[in-house]
Amino acid sequence: MLSVVVLACSLAFAAAAPSIPPELYSPLITQKLLAVAQNFSNPSQYPEYTTPPPYGDQIGRWVWFPTDTWTNGFFPAAMMLLAERAQSCSGGQLISASDAATALGQGRTWSAPLVTLETGSKLGHDVGNGNSSAYRDMAISHADKTIQNHVRADGSTFHVVVYNSTDGAVIAQETHQGYSNTSTWTRGQAWAMYGFTSMYNRTGLSRYLDTARQVSQFYVDHLPTGNSVPPWDFDAPLSPTPPRDTSSATVASSAMLLLSQMETSIGNSTGSAYWTDKALTLLTDTISLAWRTEPEWQAVLSNGTSFFSEGVYDTGLTYGDYYFVKAGNILLDMGLANCNSGMGSATPACGSNCGSTPATIVTQTQKSGERLNNEANQTDPKLADRGGGRGRGDRGRGRGGADRGGDRGRGRGGDRGGRGAGADRGGRGGPPAGPPAGPPIGSDRGRGFDRGRGGDRGGESGADERILVGRGRGGDRGGFRGGPLALAGPPIGGGGFVAPPHYPSNAAGISHLIQAVGVRRPHFGSVGVPVAVYTNNFKANIPNAKIYQYDVGEWAPYLQQCMAALTTYLVILPTGKVYPSELTMKIIRAMQESNPDIFTPKGVYDGRAIFYSPKNYPFPQGRQEVGVGDRGDFKVRLTIAATINPETLLRYIQGEQSHDESVLTAINACNVAVRMEPIQNNPFNVRSFFTPDERRPLGRGIELWRGYFQSVRPAIGRMVVNLDISTGTFYKGGPLIGLCLEFLGAYGQPELHLTARMDGRRRNDLIKFIRNLKVKTQKRGEGPKIRPIKDLSKEGASDHMFPTTDGAMTTVAAFFSLANGRALTHPKVLSVKAYVPMELCEVVEGQPMRKQVPSDLVKGVLDFSTSRPEQRLRSIMNGLQVLQYGSSSYLQDFGIDVDPSPMLIQGRVLPTPTLQYGGSEIRPANGQWNMRDRKLWKPVQIMGCVMINYDNRFDQQSQRSMIEGLEEACRSVGITGMTRSVPILQKDPMGTTYSNHLKEAAQLYRKEVGSMPNLVIVVLPDRGNEDIYYRIKKINVKLGGINVIPKASSVQFLTDPSNPTLVLGCDVMHPTPGAGYRSRPSFTALTGNIDSSSSRFIATSRAQKAGQEMVEDLEEMVSDVLGKYMAYRRDVEKKKILAPRRVIFYRDGVSEGQFKQVVEIEVPRIKSAFAKAKILPPKLTVVIVGKRHHNRFFPANQKDADKSGNAPAGLVIDREITNPLEFDFFLQSHGGLLGTSRSAHYSCLVDENSFTADDLQQLSFSLCHVYARATRSVSIVAPTYYADTVCARAKHHYDPDGTLADLSDTASQMSSEAAEAQMNLYKERFKPLHPGTAQNMYFQ
């Protein structure tokens, strides 16, 4: 009787249920899915979302992703749902038998690249796999922990929980894909509804039903009125109107229908009816909002939000469509819909357009060496709702805590957990957070959907995204195991649409727990025209075995302190001496070659302090002393202490580990292994080695040798070898006398130039040039000896006396005449100490000259170093032949392979900003433009002009012609006040009181005109004295006009009137190393705009301690610029908002190793200046501008090259070869002139302004177009270019007639106390700018 009553209630409910939307069973669903599926016979990419609205005629077309993307399983799973639907309605009412068979076949085909499905006819989803109690216990443990830490008291949920890896304590509760950490991301809430309902379905435990009701009620209570499809986040701001998320709606609808079934199972018909009603209402509203019938829209639904902060919203989503179909199937299972529900709906045929070739293919390189695992290809009688997806799911290597679980959790159906930590790190299975996989139970290893080693490392179950997941040990390993997406758009070489990148946890696939020195990469850029370029980077794999590190020599105590027992020590005895790297390399080489029983395989040595081995050598008690040399001249002591695990490097390039000491050590080991072979046989420096095969005489006894720079660097998802050509300066080999004569520029007999009668200054210059130069000498009957030159004698060999061993005195000439049996040819020529005639010395070939190249020879160096892009790439490829990576036994032993082909990557050419002149606009082409017939944006008025002429050949006619030309040119660009009546002061250029000349010229003008001039023109003689130029130009003030500005629409970030923006540029210039280095100052400069168009800059500079990179007076300098900025806005522009709301600080000249110092030292100084100004703290963005790198880019197609053969101006690279963790990009902002262009490398260290990649890249490119004295875009942003110029001029901020004016590189050596006193004097006497000059761009 009871069963009859229940049946009657069910029938009554069915009759009274809300109407079933016929679209749930429309044939259009089948048509769209199959049309897309049948277009590919061998799928290698999978759809995830359709192109967002900004992309014109591509809207509605699928964006495609590689096989290891976590969402891939939904597309084949949706087709399996269609096959299920056919079984429910075997008469073909909802789907024809042929379409059902096609759907089943396509589901299997599209699943094959992910995981092989069974070939039987028994179908099922969300059914788990097996009856393992261990897996069941793990799932329950995870689910309980999820309830405890993810579900808030009001029923809302956190997206991610971060656990302590040691004790399992909760570190943070966050919401990464939602609006904020305290908000509720609606799709995450929907996953919670489905996950907890599924857990109750599998376990029958009431706490999961209670939680499912709680989270579902919160969802329902917060749905909007009217159309109930939720926004992407329940707490998103209402203005502007937030996008909806229909995928949230379909997941929630399926969850509530499943919950309705659970209520029915316990006899709660009221609850069942309630959840069914809410689900049907939400489905009806979804269809009303998002049902798409047009053929060009390839998805079933629209209005999905994949990742709001990445701009991926108002799209179709594969998982939104999947759960839409699934909801229809659940309604069939519940008996609320029948096999005729979908018939008769008027829907147009999709046609062939549904399956057209994808407009965008987004590809990704898999992790090196990763292959599909056959464990997942076993036949399984049940689908377990894997969505067909294989991809490694959430791997969950739980390793510790009280709830560790006894098994590895290889449930085939579910995700593999996610490295849960602490108390709930759980075996290797994930919590039952969401469909379609269900709890990870069963004996097979199935890899779920997410290939990326676990979406969130605390263990997410099912194919769903980062929902209710404890990440434990480092969290969120990023959706793609092989690293983030590599390219957007079609394959290289083609054109086409570039889709916005999208990543499952954050845009770049980087774990949110990873610590970065700067800003973690938020996403990749997408704006611009795709262009294929070769780069001088070559793919390399990571060593596949452990590496053992040893430390070397006198540095051991220091390294012990720094590395704290991380390292092993290798000490070369006898100690107490520091040996040159050339010698220590020979010692280590001899050690290994003479002891093959120990050193097989061989280790590698960096020439200084570190030795690495691929083998842990079997030393007693971990220590061994090895004799080197026939007489045991050296003993090398090795002590093993630590091991390098390359896995840390692998995790780093995949965005799963912070850049710490272990990563640095692993990278260094790879670098030493790569360079070991070439440096044993060639001259080398830190990163380059040189060969004599390609060399050129430079003059002055110097040769140029072609070299090869090589560096192993981490990139996104891979390691690369950066290989470039370099140039080295070397001493010319051969007779020392010839070298010395060539250096002096002397000709004829050496007796005329190299004797005691030498001028003292020339003699000192020669000594500096040859000091420590190695020469080979030989006496009769003895072998050759190599010795360094320490000094020159003051007398010739025939006059230079010294005592012999028997106490008698003899001359150098007599001694060597007797020893060699012949008289010296040049007895009057100087000897080198100790006591060797110069004519008997041969300069050893291949010695680097580590001194500054004389200024008159710099052009020759540039000529040798400069080559067109195609020539440079050929030289680099020739270098590969020299390097012979493939045959290096060292690389083979370390397991390092280098791809011999240069990487072909995709860049983008950014749109050029529009520039404004007075009354006209212009759009640069390839980084240049012509201002002919254009007026300056803000021309000034010349109030008076006077000229000083230092060139006696510049006669009156020449003077008149110049003045007339200047007047005409001024008038043509809008400058007024320039007349042809200019007083001229004629002066002798050999004088020294140039400041008096300026005063005299001003008085001359005043006498003739009656007022003071504001422009002084100085005519210098040919080959003008640099002294004159700088002393005159220091006070030759620029007049304060503005040439050109970027159009406001091109730089909206800078021109927003409600958010005034201050752009700063900063640089530091150091003295050239050498004698007297410590006594000379480094100079700092800060520039900043004062106008609203960011085109008029001012500057301030200081002197500080030599070699100090962090700007000591930065707080004071920022305050100076800030004050002038606010005054200009108040007094000139009449703005109401005076203080900047945003500040961008571009910092030049900082190496990667100093990034942390900028953040910890300079950033607080900047903010302190804001605080002292008592203004609302502006949002600060800090960007490093790097120029000293070796990455080069070569157009793959000549049609993409400019006239110089370089890539066009505006090329930006932010993928594949950039930092694995941090927000950086390469920008080649200038057109090519000579040689191969070098891009600037921008690294964002602080970003309170939350720049998108596109915005920061385009802003930086625009700022390369406002350099005042050029009609070309420049290679770095103008603020830092100005700062560089100001630094170069800063050495002239001293009294030109005073004792501190000489800052030449020939300053003499002095004691540390004297050097410090001299330094303080430089700082005290540094002259600030004149107040009038400080308001203008005097440095241009």
Give an overview of the whole structure:
An 11-stranded mixed sheet has the order 39-38-37-40-41-45-44-43-30-9-42, sandwiched between helices. The protein starts with a helix and ends in a 6-residue tail after the last helix. Helix 26 (1155-1172) links the parallel strand 40 (1142-1148) and strand 41 (1179-1186). It is globular. Helix 3 (74-88) packs antiparallel against helix 4 and helix 8 (246-265) runs antiparallel to helix 9 (269-290). It is built from 30 helices and 45 strands. With 1340 residues, the protein is an alpha+beta fold.
Brief summary of the model shown:
The chain has 1340 residues and is α+β, with helices and mostly antiparallel strands. It contains 30 helices and 45 strands. The radius of gyration is 37 Å and the shape is globular.
Please render the helix and strand layout as text.
Layout: H1 2-16, H2 27-37, E1 45-50, E2 62-66, H3 74-88, H4 97-111, H5 133-150, E3 160-163, E4 170-174, H6 186-203, H7 206-221, H8 246-265, H9 269-290, E5 304-307, E6 312-315, H10 318-334, E7 360-361, E8 469-470, E9 529-535, E10 537-540, E11 547-552, H11 556-563, E12 569-573, H12 581-593, E13 604-605, E14 610-613, E15 623-628, E16 634-639, E17 642-644, H13 647-653, H14 661-679, E18 688-699, E19 702-715, E20 718-731, E21 734-735, H15 736-744, H16 760-770, E22 774-777, E23 785-788, E24 791-796, E25 801-803, E26 809-811, H17 812-820, E27 830-833, E28 836-837, E29 842-843, H18 858-865, H19 869-883, H20 889-894, E30 904-909, E31 915-917, E32 920-922, E33 945-949, H21 956-973, E34 984-986, H22 994-1009, E35 1015-1019, H23 1026-1035, E36 1045-1046, H24 1052-1055, E37 1061-1069, E38 1082-1089, E39 1097-1104, H25 1114-1131, E40 1142-1148, H26 1155-1172, E41 1179-1186, E42 1193-1195, E43 1211-1213, E44 1224-1228, E45 1240-1247, H27 1253-1263, H28 1278-1290, H29 1312-1324, H30 1331-1334
Parallel strand pairs: 2-7, 3-8, 11-12, 33-34, 33-35, 37-40, 40-41
Antiparallel strand pairs: 1-2, 3-4, 5-6, 9-30, 9-42, 10-20, 11-14, 11-17, 12-16, 13-14, 15-16, 18-19, 19-20, 21-29, 22-23, 22-29, 24-27, 25-26, 27-28, 30-43, 31-32, 31-36, 37-38, 38-39, 41-45, 43-44, 44-45
Helix pairs in contact: 2-4, 3-4, 3-10, 6-7, 6-8, 7-8, 8-9, 8-10, 25-26
